[in-house]
Amino acid sequence: MYDYPLGLIQTFNDNVAYFNKFVSFCENIYDIKKFEYTDDNIDYYQNIFCSKVSNFILLAIYSNDVDYKCIFLTWEFDGKKLVWDIPSGGLPEKKEEIRKTIEKIVKKYLPNVNLNTISPISSVSMKYLHGTKEIVHKGLVFACSISNIKEYSKNNPHLRGLFVPINDTQNINITSSFNEDIIRFSLKKIEKMKQGSNTSTNEIETQKKYRGRYIFHDIFFKKLITFIGYLYKPRKSISKKRYKELLFDNIPSGINYILDIAAGDDASTIKYTEKSEVVVLNDISGTALDILARNSKTSKNIFFTNEDILNANFKHNSFDVVICKNCIHHFNSAKELTQLFDNMVKWSNKRIIVSEIMHPNEVSGLWPKIKNLYYERFLHDVGSSLFTINNFENAIKHFFINSQFSVRQETYLTVMGINYLVIIDKI
Ligand SMILES: C[S@@+](CC[C@H](N)C(=O)[O-])C[C@H]1O[C@@H](n2cnc3c(N)ncnc32)[C@H](O)[C@@H]1O
Protein backbone atom coordinates (compact mmCIF):
# COMPACT_ATOMS: atom_id res chain seq x y z
CA MET A 1 0.00 0.00 0.00
CA TYR A 2 1.15 3.53 -0.72
CA ASP A 3 2.21 5.41 2.36
CA TYR A 4 1.02 8.93 1.91
CA PRO A 5 0.11 10.05 -1.53
CA LEU A 6 -2.84 12.29 -0.59
CA GLY A 7 -2.13 14.28 -3.73
CA LEU A 8 -2.82 17.98 -3.74
CA ILE A 9 -4.17 17.78 -0.21
CA GLN A 10 -0.93 16.23 1.03
CA THR A 11 1.08 18.42 3.38
CA PHE A 12 4.75 18.86 2.52
CA ASN A 13 7.80 20.54 3.71
CA ASP A 14 11.06 20.55 1.90
CA ASN A 15 11.77 16.93 2.73
CA VAL A 16 13.52 15.36 -0.23
CA ALA A 17 12.50 11.73 0.18
CA TYR A 18 8.90 12.69 0.82
CA PHE A 19 8.66 14.89 -2.26
CA ASN A 20 10.42 12.26 -4.41
CA LYS A 21 7.55 9.85 -3.72
CA PHE A 22 5.04 12.48 -4.72
CA VAL A 23 6.89 13.20 -7.96
CA SER A 24 7.25 9.54 -8.86
CA PHE A 25 3.56 8.96 -8.16
CA CYS A 26 2.67 11.84 -10.51
CA GLU A 27 4.95 10.29 -13.12
CA ASN A 28 2.91 7.07 -12.86
CA ILE A 29 -0.50 8.53 -13.54
CA TYR A 30 0.18 11.74 -15.47
CA ASP A 31 1.42 12.29 -18.99
CA ILE A 32 4.59 13.92 -17.75
CA LYS A 33 7.82 14.78 -19.54
CA LYS A 34 10.92 14.23 -17.44
CA PHE A 35 13.72 16.77 -17.58
CA GLU A 36 17.08 15.79 -16.16
CA TYR A 37 20.02 18.09 -15.55
CA THR A 38 23.47 17.84 -14.08
CA ASP A 39 25.45 20.75 -12.73
CA ASP A 40 27.14 21.12 -16.13
CA ASN A 41 23.81 22.37 -17.37
CA ILE A 42 22.92 24.80 -14.62
CA ASP A 43 24.38 28.25 -14.32
CA TYR A 44 26.06 29.95 -11.38
CA TYR A 45 22.90 31.64 -10.03
CA GLN A 46 20.86 28.49 -10.33
CA ASN A 47 23.56 26.72 -8.34
CA ILE A 48 23.24 29.31 -5.56
CA PHE A 49 19.46 28.98 -5.67
CA CYS A 50 19.74 25.20 -5.37
CA SER A 51 22.02 25.35 -2.39
CA LYS A 52 19.42 27.46 -0.55
CA VAL A 53 16.21 25.61 -1.39
CA SER A 54 16.05 22.07 -2.60
CA ASN A 55 12.76 20.89 -4.01
CA PHE A 56 10.83 23.36 -6.08
CA ILE A 57 7.76 23.95 -8.20
CA LEU A 58 7.28 25.91 -11.40
CA LEU A 59 3.94 27.23 -12.56
CA ALA A 60 2.65 27.65 -16.10
CA ILE A 61 -0.33 29.87 -15.27
CA TYR A 62 -2.74 30.12 -18.19
CA SER A 63 -6.20 31.39 -18.95
CA ASN A 64 -8.99 30.78 -21.42
CA ASP A 65 -10.93 33.64 -19.87
CA VAL A 66 -10.47 35.99 -22.79
CA ASP A 67 -10.98 35.25 -26.50
CA TYR A 68 -7.48 33.82 -26.87
CA LYS A 69 -5.47 31.42 -24.72
CA CYS A 70 -2.69 33.21 -22.82
CA ILE A 71 0.05 32.45 -20.32
CA PHE A 72 1.49 34.52 -17.49
CA LEU A 73 5.21 35.23 -17.97
CA THR A 74 7.48 37.28 -15.74
CA TRP A 75 10.12 39.48 -17.34
CA GLU A 76 13.59 40.69 -16.42
CA PHE A 77 16.63 42.13 -18.15
CA ASP A 78 19.57 39.92 -19.02
CA GLY A 79 22.08 42.63 -19.91
CA LYS A 80 20.14 44.67 -22.44
CA LYS A 81 17.95 41.77 -23.47
CA LEU A 82 14.40 41.40 -22.17
CA VAL A 83 13.88 37.77 -21.15
CA TRP A 84 10.79 35.90 -19.95
CA ASP A 85 10.34 33.25 -17.28
CA ILE A 86 7.54 31.46 -15.39
CA PRO A 87 6.76 31.85 -11.65
CA SER A 88 8.46 29.42 -9.32
CA GLY A 89 9.09 28.76 -5.65
CA GLY A 90 10.71 26.35 -3.24
CA LEU A 91 8.77 24.05 -0.98
CA PRO A 92 8.24 25.59 2.47
CA GLU A 93 10.25 24.68 5.57
CA LYS A 94 7.07 24.08 7.52
CA LYS A 95 4.56 21.50 6.38
CA GLU A 96 1.83 22.87 4.14
CA GLU A 97 -0.64 21.40 1.63
CA ILE A 98 0.99 21.47 -1.76
CA ARG A 99 -2.15 23.09 -3.15
CA LYS A 100 -1.73 25.93 -0.63
CA THR A 101 1.93 26.38 -1.62
CA ILE A 102 0.85 26.66 -5.26
CA GLU A 103 -1.95 29.08 -4.33
CA LYS A 104 0.55 31.26 -2.45
CA ILE A 105 2.89 31.50 -5.45
CA VAL A 106 -0.04 32.41 -7.71
CA LYS A 107 -1.26 35.03 -5.21
CA LYS A 108 2.22 36.51 -4.89
CA TYR A 109 2.30 37.35 -8.59
CA LEU A 110 -1.42 37.68 -9.27
CA PRO A 111 -3.33 38.59 -6.09
CA ASN A 112 -6.65 39.18 -7.88
CA VAL A 113 -7.05 36.10 -10.02
CA ASN A 114 -8.77 32.86 -9.05
CA LEU A 115 -6.87 29.60 -9.25
CA ASN A 116 -9.09 26.97 -10.88
CA THR A 117 -7.29 23.74 -11.70
CA ILE A 118 -3.79 22.35 -11.10
CA SER A 119 -2.23 19.81 -13.42
CA PRO A 120 1.31 18.36 -13.27
CA ILE A 121 2.87 18.48 -16.76
CA SER A 122 6.57 17.81 -16.25
CA SER A 123 9.10 16.79 -13.65
CA VAL A 124 12.63 18.05 -13.21
CA SER A 125 15.58 16.33 -11.64
CA MET A 126 18.76 18.30 -10.97
CA LYS A 127 21.92 16.52 -9.92
CA TYR A 128 24.79 18.66 -8.90
CA LEU A 129 27.95 18.50 -6.86
CA HIS A 130 28.10 20.54 -3.71
CA GLY A 131 31.73 20.10 -2.65
CA THR A 132 32.15 16.38 -3.21
CA LYS A 133 28.60 15.46 -2.34
CA GLU A 134 26.08 14.72 -5.07
CA ILE A 135 22.73 16.34 -4.39
CA VAL A 136 19.51 15.70 -6.31
CA HIS A 137 16.75 18.28 -6.28
CA LYS A 138 13.35 17.52 -7.68
CA GLY A 139 10.84 19.84 -9.21
CA LEU A 140 7.36 19.61 -10.63
CA VAL A 141 5.87 21.89 -13.24
CA PHE A 142 2.13 22.49 -12.91
CA ALA A 143 -0.19 23.95 -15.51
CA CYS A 144 -2.58 26.14 -13.51
CA SER A 145 -5.75 27.46 -15.09
CA ILE A 146 -7.04 30.70 -13.64
CA SER A 147 -10.08 32.93 -14.07
CA ASN A 148 -10.77 36.61 -13.46
CA ILE A 149 -7.77 37.48 -15.63
CA LYS A 150 -9.07 40.99 -16.41
CA GLU A 151 -8.34 41.99 -12.83
CA TYR A 152 -4.78 40.75 -12.77
CA SER A 153 -3.02 44.12 -12.86
CA LYS A 154 -5.40 45.93 -10.49
CA ASN A 155 -3.80 46.91 -7.14
CA ASN A 156 -0.71 44.99 -8.12
CA PRO A 157 2.10 47.59 -7.88
CA HIS A 158 4.96 45.07 -7.86
CA LEU A 159 3.75 43.27 -10.93
CA ARG A 160 6.63 42.21 -13.16
CA GLY A 161 4.82 40.13 -15.69
CA LEU A 162 2.24 39.97 -18.44
CA PHE A 163 -0.35 37.63 -19.88
CA VAL A 164 1.06 36.84 -23.30
CA PRO A 165 -1.17 35.27 -25.99
CA ILE A 166 0.15 31.75 -26.43
CA ASN A 167 0.39 32.25 -30.22
CA ASP A 168 2.80 35.15 -29.70
CA THR A 169 5.26 33.24 -27.55
CA GLN A 170 7.34 31.70 -30.39
CA ASN A 171 9.33 34.87 -30.96
CA ILE A 172 10.05 36.05 -27.43
CA ASN A 173 13.34 35.52 -25.60
CA ILE A 174 13.04 32.96 -22.85
CA THR A 175 15.42 33.21 -19.89
CA SER A 176 18.67 31.41 -20.62
CA SER A 177 18.71 29.74 -17.20
CA PHE A 178 18.11 26.00 -16.94
CA ASN A 179 14.37 26.65 -17.30
CA GLU A 180 14.46 27.47 -20.96
CA ASP A 181 13.46 24.14 -22.46
CA ILE A 182 11.01 23.50 -19.60
CA ILE A 183 9.28 26.77 -20.46
CA ARG A 184 9.25 26.00 -24.18
CA PHE A 185 7.75 22.60 -23.39
CA SER A 186 5.10 24.16 -21.09
CA LEU A 187 4.10 26.66 -23.78
CA LYS A 188 3.63 23.87 -26.32
CA LYS A 189 1.71 21.75 -23.82
CA ILE A 190 -0.68 24.57 -23.00
CA GLU A 191 -1.11 25.44 -26.65
CA LYS A 192 -2.19 21.87 -27.36
CA MET A 193 -4.44 21.59 -24.32
CA LYS A 194 -8.09 21.17 -25.16
CA GLN A 195 -10.65 23.75 -24.07
CA GLY A 196 -12.02 23.00 -20.58
CA SER A 197 -15.73 22.74 -19.82
CA ASN A 198 -17.98 25.74 -20.50
CA THR A 199 -19.16 25.79 -16.92
CA SER A 200 -15.78 25.27 -15.21
CA THR A 201 -15.41 28.73 -13.64
CA ASN A 202 -19.07 28.82 -12.63
CA GLU A 203 -18.72 25.33 -11.14
CA ILE A 204 -15.73 26.30 -9.00
CA GLU A 205 -16.97 29.73 -7.96
CA THR A 206 -20.45 28.48 -7.03
CA GLN A 207 -19.09 25.81 -4.71
CA LYS A 208 -16.67 28.32 -3.20
CA LYS A 209 -19.40 30.93 -2.71
CA TYR A 210 -21.83 28.50 -1.12
CA ARG A 211 -19.14 26.54 0.77
CA GLY A 212 -21.06 26.89 4.06
CA ARG A 213 -24.19 25.47 2.44
CA TYR A 214 -22.21 22.57 0.96
CA ILE A 215 -20.70 21.73 4.36
CA PHE A 216 -24.13 21.99 6.00
CA HIS A 217 -25.51 19.84 3.20
CA ASP A 218 -22.80 17.24 3.79
CA ILE A 219 -23.36 17.13 7.55
CA PHE A 220 -27.11 17.56 7.77
CA PHE A 221 -29.28 18.03 4.65
CA LYS A 222 -27.91 15.03 2.76
CA LYS A 223 -29.04 12.76 5.60
CA LEU A 224 -32.36 14.60 5.90
CA ILE A 225 -33.02 14.22 2.16
CA THR A 226 -32.25 10.53 2.35
CA PHE A 227 -34.52 10.19 5.39
CA ILE A 228 -37.46 11.97 3.70
CA GLY A 229 -36.75 9.82 0.65
CA TYR A 230 -37.22 6.71 2.80
CA LEU A 231 -40.54 7.97 4.16
CA TYR A 232 -41.63 8.71 0.64
CA LYS A 233 -40.08 5.52 -0.70
CA PRO A 234 -41.81 4.36 -3.88
CA ARG A 235 -42.53 0.69 -4.21
CA LYS A 236 -39.79 -1.50 -5.71
CA SER A 237 -37.08 1.03 -4.92
CA ILE A 238 -33.77 0.05 -3.33
CA SER A 239 -31.85 2.10 -0.80
CA LYS A 240 -29.14 4.54 -1.84
CA LYS A 241 -26.69 2.46 0.16
CA ARG A 242 -27.70 -0.71 -1.69
CA TYR A 243 -27.26 1.05 -5.03
CA LYS A 244 -23.76 2.14 -4.05
CA GLU A 245 -22.98 -1.46 -3.06
CA LEU A 246 -24.11 -2.63 -6.50
CA LEU A 247 -21.79 -0.14 -8.13
CA PHE A 248 -18.99 -1.20 -5.77
CA ASP A 249 -19.53 -4.88 -6.69
CA ASN A 250 -18.69 -4.00 -10.28
CA ILE A 251 -15.19 -2.86 -9.34
CA PRO A 252 -12.81 -5.82 -9.63
CA SER A 253 -10.65 -6.55 -6.56
CA GLY A 254 -6.87 -6.45 -6.40
CA ILE A 255 -6.38 -3.75 -9.00
CA ASN A 256 -3.79 -0.97 -9.00
CA TYR A 257 -5.46 2.28 -9.95
CA ILE A 258 -9.02 3.62 -9.91
CA LEU A 259 -9.93 7.08 -11.12
CA ASP A 260 -13.18 8.77 -10.09
CA ILE A 261 -13.38 11.71 -12.50
CA ALA A 262 -15.71 13.87 -10.38
CA ALA A 263 -15.88 12.51 -6.84
CA GLY A 264 -17.53 15.63 -5.41
CA ASP A 265 -18.11 15.22 -1.68
CA ASP A 266 -19.22 11.60 -2.03
CA ALA A 267 -17.67 9.76 0.94
CA SER A 268 -18.60 6.35 -0.51
CA THR A 269 -15.64 6.76 -2.88
CA ILE A 270 -13.31 6.13 0.07
CA LYS A 271 -14.50 2.53 0.17
CA TYR A 272 -12.94 1.99 -3.27
CA THR A 273 -9.62 1.78 -1.42
CA GLU A 274 -10.63 -1.76 -0.35
CA LYS A 275 -10.36 -2.84 -4.00
CA SER A 276 -7.44 -0.89 -5.36
CA GLU A 277 -3.90 -0.06 -4.36
CA VAL A 278 -4.50 3.63 -5.09
CA VAL A 279 -7.72 5.55 -5.67
CA VAL A 280 -7.42 8.85 -7.52
CA LEU A 281 -10.29 11.14 -6.56
CA ASN A 282 -10.65 14.10 -8.87
CA ASP A 283 -12.94 17.09 -8.88
CA ILE A 284 -12.81 20.44 -10.60
CA SER A 285 -13.86 22.06 -7.34
CA GLY A 286 -11.24 22.43 -4.62
CA THR A 287 -14.11 23.04 -2.18
CA ALA A 288 -15.63 19.62 -2.92
CA LEU A 289 -12.22 18.01 -2.45
CA ASP A 290 -11.76 19.78 0.89
CA ILE A 291 -15.10 18.49 2.15
CA LEU A 292 -14.31 14.98 0.97
CA ALA A 293 -10.81 15.09 2.45
CA ARG A 294 -12.30 15.84 5.89
CA ASN A 295 -13.91 12.39 5.68
CA SER A 296 -10.89 10.55 4.38
CA LYS A 297 -7.77 11.80 6.17
CA THR A 298 -7.37 8.40 7.71
CA SER A 299 -7.26 6.55 4.43
CA LYS A 300 -3.76 6.21 3.09
CA ASN A 301 -4.18 5.17 -0.49
CA ILE A 302 -6.13 8.13 -1.82
CA PHE A 303 -4.66 10.67 -4.20
CA PHE A 304 -6.66 13.87 -4.70
CA THR A 305 -6.42 15.73 -7.98
CA ASN A 306 -7.96 18.99 -9.11
CA GLU A 307 -8.50 18.74 -12.86
CA ASP A 308 -11.10 19.90 -15.30
CA ILE A 309 -11.83 16.43 -16.60
CA LEU A 310 -12.21 17.68 -20.17
CA ASN A 311 -8.56 18.65 -20.43
CA ALA A 312 -6.90 16.64 -17.64
CA ASN A 313 -3.37 15.41 -18.27
CA PHE A 314 -3.68 11.75 -17.19
CA LYS A 315 -1.60 9.13 -18.98
CA HIS A 316 -3.20 6.77 -21.50
CA ASN A 317 -4.25 3.36 -20.10
CA SER A 318 -3.11 4.19 -16.59
CA PHE A 319 -6.31 3.25 -14.70
CA ASP A 320 -7.89 -0.18 -14.34
CA VAL A 321 -11.27 1.38 -13.68
CA VAL A 322 -12.53 4.88 -14.50
CA ILE A 323 -15.72 5.90 -12.71
CA CYS A 324 -18.06 8.68 -13.78
CA LYS A 325 -20.87 9.01 -11.25
CA ASN A 326 -23.59 11.65 -11.52
CA CYS A 327 -21.39 13.92 -13.49
CA ILE A 328 -22.35 13.88 -17.15
CA HIS A 329 -25.29 16.23 -16.59
CA HIS A 330 -22.62 18.89 -15.90
CA PHE A 331 -21.64 18.91 -19.57
CA ASN A 332 -24.02 20.78 -21.75
CA SER A 333 -23.03 20.05 -25.33
CA ALA A 334 -22.44 17.03 -27.55
CA LYS A 335 -18.87 18.29 -28.07
CA GLU A 336 -18.16 18.22 -24.32
CA LEU A 337 -19.76 14.81 -23.89
CA THR A 338 -17.63 13.43 -26.74
CA GLN A 339 -14.50 14.89 -25.16
CA LEU A 340 -15.44 13.39 -21.79
CA PHE A 341 -16.13 9.88 -23.13
CA ASP A 342 -13.02 9.96 -25.37
CA ASN A 343 -10.91 10.85 -22.32
CA MET A 344 -12.36 8.05 -20.20
CA VAL A 345 -11.69 5.53 -22.98
CA LYS A 346 -8.12 6.84 -23.30
CA TRP A 347 -7.33 6.68 -19.58
CA SER A 348 -8.90 3.30 -18.76
CA ASN A 349 -7.03 0.15 -19.62
CA LYS A 350 -10.11 -2.03 -19.06
CA ARG A 351 -13.32 -0.86 -17.41
CA ILE A 352 -15.43 2.30 -17.36
CA ILE A 353 -18.37 2.64 -14.99
CA VAL A 354 -20.96 5.31 -15.71
CA SER A 355 -23.68 5.91 -13.16
CA GLU A 356 -26.15 8.68 -13.78
CA ILE A 357 -29.33 9.88 -12.15
CA MET A 358 -32.12 10.46 -14.67
CA HIS A 359 -34.28 13.58 -15.00
CA PRO A 360 -36.81 13.84 -12.11
CA ASN A 361 -39.69 13.88 -14.61
CA GLU A 362 -38.87 10.23 -15.34
CA VAL A 363 -40.41 9.22 -12.01
CA SER A 364 -43.89 10.01 -10.80
CA GLY A 365 -44.54 11.94 -7.61
CA LEU A 366 -43.50 15.21 -6.08
CA TRP A 367 -40.48 14.30 -3.98
CA PRO A 368 -37.89 13.86 -6.79
CA LYS A 369 -38.91 17.28 -8.15
CA ILE A 370 -38.65 18.96 -4.74
CA LYS A 371 -35.26 17.39 -4.21
CA ASN A 372 -34.14 18.64 -7.61
CA LEU A 373 -35.32 22.16 -6.74
CA TYR A 374 -33.28 22.01 -3.55
CA TYR A 375 -30.13 21.18 -5.55
CA GLU A 376 -30.88 23.91 -8.09
CA ARG A 377 -32.09 26.72 -5.84
CA PHE A 378 -30.32 26.12 -2.51
CA LEU A 379 -27.01 24.56 -3.55
CA HIS A 380 -27.04 26.35 -6.93
CA ASP A 381 -25.83 23.10 -8.51
CA VAL A 382 -24.43 23.96 -11.94
CA GLY A 383 -25.33 20.57 -13.48
CA SER A 384 -28.60 21.32 -15.20
CA SER A 385 -28.48 18.97 -18.17
CA LEU A 386 -30.13 15.91 -16.61
CA PHE A 387 -30.91 13.22 -19.17
CA THR A 388 -34.18 11.57 -20.01
CA ILE A 389 -33.87 7.79 -20.19
CA ASN A 390 -34.26 7.94 -23.93
CA ASN A 391 -31.50 10.53 -24.44
CA PHE A 392 -29.16 8.72 -22.09
CA GLU A 393 -29.65 5.37 -23.84
CA ASN A 394 -29.05 7.05 -27.19
CA ALA A 395 -25.81 8.61 -25.95
CA ILE A 396 -24.52 5.27 -24.64
CA LYS A 397 -25.52 3.56 -27.87
CA HIS A 398 -23.81 6.22 -29.95
CA PHE A 399 -20.50 6.07 -28.07
CA PHE A 400 -20.16 2.55 -26.75
CA ILE A 401 -22.31 0.02 -28.59
CA ASN A 402 -19.75 -1.14 -31.13
CA SER A 403 -17.08 -3.82 -31.58
CA GLN A 404 -14.59 -2.03 -29.29
CA PHE A 405 -16.62 -2.53 -26.11
CA SER A 406 -18.79 -4.96 -24.23
CA VAL A 407 -21.55 -3.08 -22.43
CA ARG A 408 -23.96 -4.01 -19.64
CA GLN A 409 -26.77 -1.61 -18.72
CA GLU A 410 -29.00 -1.72 -15.63
CA THR A 411 -31.51 0.67 -14.09
CA TYR A 412 -32.38 0.98 -10.41
CA LEU A 413 -35.01 3.02 -8.69
CA THR A 414 -33.72 4.59 -5.48
CA VAL A 415 -35.04 7.30 -3.20
CA MET A 416 -33.09 9.74 -5.39
CA GLY A 417 -34.83 8.71 -8.63
CA ILE A 418 -33.90 6.41 -11.51
CA ASN A 419 -30.20 5.53 -11.59
CA TYR A 420 -28.68 4.21 -14.79
CA LEU A 421 -25.65 1.99 -14.26
CA VAL A 422 -23.50 1.18 -17.29
CA ILE A 423 -20.50 -1.15 -17.16
CA ILE A 424 -18.29 -0.75 -20.20
CA ASP A 425 -15.32 -3.05 -20.84
CA LYS A 426 -12.72 -2.52 -23.52
CA ILE A 427 -12.48 -5.68 -25.65
C1 LIG B 1 -23.55 15.98 -8.82
S1 LIG B 1 -21.89 16.01 -8.29
C2 LIG B 1 -21.58 14.28 -8.16
C3 LIG B 1 -20.50 13.96 -7.19
C4 LIG B 1 -20.31 12.45 -6.91
N1 LIG B 1 -19.78 11.75 -8.05
C5 LIG B 1 -21.59 11.81 -6.44
O1 LIG B 1 -22.11 10.94 -7.13
O2 LIG B 1 -22.09 12.19 -5.37
C6 LIG B 1 -21.01 16.47 -9.74
C7 LIG B 1 -19.55 16.83 -9.50
O3 LIG B 1 -18.92 17.03 -10.77
C8 LIG B 1 -17.94 18.04 -10.61
N2 LIG B 1 -17.60 18.56 -11.95
C9 LIG B 1 -18.37 19.32 -12.76
N3 LIG B 1 -17.70 19.62 -13.89
C10 LIG B 1 -16.48 19.02 -13.80
C11 LIG B 1 -15.34 18.98 -14.65
N4 LIG B 1 -15.33 19.60 -15.84
N5 LIG B 1 -14.26 18.29 -14.24
C12 LIG B 1 -14.25 17.65 -13.02
N6 LIG B 1 -15.30 17.68 -12.17
C13 LIG B 1 -16.41 18.35 -12.55
C14 LIG B 1 -18.62 19.05 -9.70
O4 LIG B 1 -17.69 19.91 -9.07
C15 LIG B 1 -19.35 18.14 -8.73
O5 LIG B 1 -18.60 17.88 -7.58
- Any idea what the CATH architecture of the largest domain is? 3-Layer(aba) Sandwich
Total domain modules: 2
Distance between the termini: 29 Å
In helices, the fraction of residues equals: 25-40%
- In N-to-C order, the SSE pattern is EHEHEEEEEHEEEHHHHEEHEEHEHHEE
Class by alpha and beta content: alpha/beta
- Rounded mean pLDDT is 85
Low-confidence stretches: none
Number of strands: 17
For the sheet with most strands, the description reads:
8 strands, mixed
Radius of gyration: 23 Å
CATH topology of the largest domain: Rossmann fold
Q: Which assembly state applies to the chains in this document?
A: single chain
CATH class of the largest domain: Alpha Beta
Query: Judging from the principal axes of the Cα atoms, what is the shape?
Result: elongated
Q: Any ligands, ions or cofactors bound here, and which?
A: S-adenosylmethionine
Q: Give the count of helical stretches.
A: 11
Percent range for β-strand residues: 25-35%
The CATH homologous superfamily of the largest domain is called Vaccinia Virus protein VP39
